Predict the 3D structure of the following.
Amino acid sequence: MTKQTAISKLVYRERIVWPREMKLLNELMKEYPEIHFWNNLDLGFQLNSLAWLKTEKGQETIQSKYNSWIEYKKRIAEKIS
């Protein structure tokens, strides 16, 4: 899975400006670094731009989704061990 895959999944294809979206994803990945999280992220809707994730509502949404992702990973790890 790649960053391009994550962007393609989250942003309307006709709205993608690759350099901008890649920059935004790189910035977001500093706080939420797992590429598997981004490739599996389902917001329930597509974005005009990843810039929405930097708004107050976007930050609340992504933090909630990331917390759920971390809990999911912990449950999987417990099942394996």
In short: The CA atoms of residues 28 and 54 lie 8 Å apart. The mean pLDDT is 95. DSSP finds four helices and no strands in the chain. Helices lie at 3-10, 18-31, 35-40, 56-80.
